[in-house]
Design a protein that fits this description.
Layout (H helix, E strand, L loop, with lengths): L14 H6 L2 H14 L4 H8 L3 H8 L10 H10 L4 H12 L22 E7 L13 E4 L11 E5 L14 E5 L9 E6 L3 E9 L5 E4 L8 E2 L5 E10 L14
Parallel strand pairs: 1-3
Antiparallel strand pairs: 1-2, 3-4, 4-9, 5-6, 5-9, 6-7, 7-8
Helix pairs in contact: 3-4, 3-5, 5-6
């Protein structure tokens, strides 16, 4: 099949033929498209804003493409190189409905925007999962970047020095659980038995996820089996007691 993906649209890339493919057949086709472009799974995952393991399941035919949310499916198939028109036609054949690309939200003048307080739970690095209902500690933020993210964010209080010089002990990393992430993204990772930590996410030569510490004294480590990436860090909150930075923040 790979030889058929040459110049111009291949018969395999006609919407009606794609719509008749099984999940296994469509997964194999996506893998061939990716390999033809010389890309690894983690590179396509970064373009689509999903985890590489998600694409691994797709290419293996372990997920029903017809049950994937249209907005996610559009991002994924575009990342594999399919044209928007073809994707919309394919989804339309599967759903029996006319599908269009999500409309971009109109820009709102700054003077028309209003900030509402956002209450988010805070967990200490190495502690358990974030719990919105019974959090022992919470904080209130009015940051514009958090607008519309109520119930989707939590804070991780940094412990230790593994993420210096970006994050210091006592800082709070604000995590968005619905945000996309890819190679190089600072993320919160839930480690079974060890709670939540903040690391930079990278992928090894075989696409294996790695946890990178910014402090060179700490080596990269593989993401443990069963770990969960909660989402990207989108804000850093730092307190300066008495208005004075700690010694570790001074040159």
């Amino acid at each position: 099949m790979a030889e058929s993906l040459g110049h111009g649209r291949s018969p395999y890339l006609e919407a009606r033929l794609l719509a008749e493919m099984s999940s296994e057949e469509l997964g194999r086709l996506l893998r061939e498209l990716r390999e033809k472009r010389g890309l690894r799974q983690h590179q396509v995952a970064a373009l689509a804003g999903v985890h590489a393991s998600y694409l691994s399941h797709l290419e293996a035919g372990n997920r029903n493409f017809r049950k994937i949310r249209p907005d996610i499916l559009i991002r994924v198939l575009k990342a594999y190189g399919l044209e928007e028109e073809l994707i919309l036609e394919l989804i339309g054949l599967w759903t029996g409905m006319k599908v269009s690309l999500p409309k971009e939200k109109p820009e709102v003048p700054p003077e028309a925007e209003t900030l509402t307080p956002l209450v988010l739970p805070v967990v200490e690095a190495g502690a358990g999962s974030p719990a919105w209902d019974d959090a022992q500690e919470t904080m209130i933020l009015y940051l514009p970047d958090l607008r519309g993210k109520g119930g989707q964010v939590f804070g991780v209080r940094i412990v230790g020095d593994s993420m210096e010089p970006l994050l210091y002990e006592g800082d709070i990393a604000v995590v968005w659980t619905e945000g996309g992430y890819g190679p190089g993204t600072l993320v919160a990772i839930g480690i079974p038995g060890n709670g939540i930590i903040v690391k930079q996410l990278y992928y090894g030569p075989k696409g294996e996820p790695l946890m990178h510490s910014l402090n060179p004294r700490y080596p990269d480590q593989p993401v443990p089996e069963g770990a969960k990436v909660w989402g990207p860090v989108i804000q850093i909150v730092r307190s300066l007691p008495g208005g004075k930075p700690g010694r570790h923040l001074l040159p």
